[in-house]
Amino acid sequence: MPHNLLVDGPEQGVQIFTLNRPDVLNALNTELLNNLCKALDNAEADPEVHAVVITGNQKAFAAGADINEMAARDLVGILEDPRVAHWERIARFTKPIIAAVNGFALGGGCELAMHADILIAGENARFGQPEINLGIMPGSGGTQRLTRKVGEALAMHMTLTGEQIDATRALQAGLISEICQPELTVERAIEIGKTIARKAPIAIRLTKESVRKANDISLSDGLRFERHAFTLLAGTADRQEGLDAFREKRAPRFKGK
């Protein structure tokens, strides 16, 4: 496996991806994003993987994009930036992603965390989009995803000033779902992943897709999509298994069918 991305598992349905460039606070260069996308491709195709945890280390989830790499690109280089395709691939991943954030999640690191479906943070986490300090702006979803998650007022403040927020403010704003002790953040993310892994895979996939649609389409279209997905599940064996297990007062045995 590549040295800049550690892959563990799957174990009980959960695979862990650890960003591993500690000398640069896990800055996201093209190679690391490419390796992450390859790992996601493998996880997508692996029926034993039901959820993915992405994390860094205690000091940094990821402190931004690789500045040296960015500085080497001119206008044409930015237009042809292969990282655009990498970000699109991460966004297309159909299985749940849980981000376990400790330390800095800044710039591209914050944008990567916001690609997760569930985001939990240690008490030491710091979130920010500091690109404005370099005379640039977020370019991988920082203005769009942040606004959808925390609202225009806070998104404007963070992107225009470059100021960071701590885990408590991130929880209050709706950026994250819970706060943990830093040393327990990954453990908690794995626990959540294992809970998801015990559910019906097709229902998980359609639920994720339906919730994501809420950001992109009108309420009426979203409700129509939700009902269509709900109806499709009526044809699955897992739905029948879930109903039977409930009536028989036993744990369901879902098979993704």
Task: Explain this structure.
The strands form 2 sheets. The protein has a 6-stranded mixed beta sheet with strand order 1-2-3-5-7-10, with helices on both faces. Strands 4-6-8-9 form a 4-stranded mixed beta sheet. The longest helix has 16 residues, at about 30-45. The protein folds into 2 domains: about 5-195, 2-enoyl-CoA Hydratase, Chain A, domain 1 (Alpha-Beta Complex); about 200-250, Lyase 2-enoyl-coa Hydratase, Chain  A, domain 2, CATH 1.10.12. Helices cover about 45% and strands about 15% of the residues. The radius of gyration is 19 Å and the shape is globular. The protein has helices at about 30-45, 65-70, 75-80, 85-90, 110-115, 140-150, 150-160, 165-175, 185-195, 200-215, 220-235, 235-250; strands at about 5-10, 15-20, 50-55, 60, 95-100, 105, 120, 125-130, 165, 180. It contains 12 helices and 10 strands. The protein is α/β, with parallel strands linked by helices and about 260 residues long.
Summarize the structure.
The protein has 257 residues and is of the alpha/beta class. It has twelve helices and ten strands. Helix 1 packs parallel to helix 4 (83-92) and helix 10 (201-213) runs antiparallel to helix 11.
Descriptive keywords:
257 residues; alpha/beta; 2-enoyl-CoA Hydratase, Chain A, domain 1; Lyase 2-enoyl-coa Hydratase, Chain  A, domain 2; 2 domains; six-stranded mixed beta sheet; four-stranded mixed beta sheet; enoyl-CoA hydratase activity; 2,3-dehydroadipyl-CoA hydratase
Could you tell me the number of beta strands?
A: 10
Question: How large is the radius of gyration?
Answer: 19 Å
Strand order of the largest sheet: 1-2-3-5-7-10
Proportion in helices: 40-55%
The first-level CATH class of the largest domain is given as Alpha Beta
Helical/strand content category: alpha/beta
Distance between the termini: 32 Å
CATH T-level topology of the largest domain: 2-enoyl-CoA Hydratase, Chain A, domain 1
The named CATH superfamily of the largest domain: 2-enoyl-CoA Hydratase, Chain A, domain 1
| Average of per-residue pLDDT values | 93
Please name the CATH architecture of the largest domain: Alpha-Beta Complex
> Major sheet, described briefly?
6 strands, mixed
Indicate the low-confidence ranges by residue numbers.
none
Tell me the count of domains: 2
What sort of overall outline do the alpha carbons produce when their principal axes are compared? globular
Strand content: 15-25%
Number of helices: 12
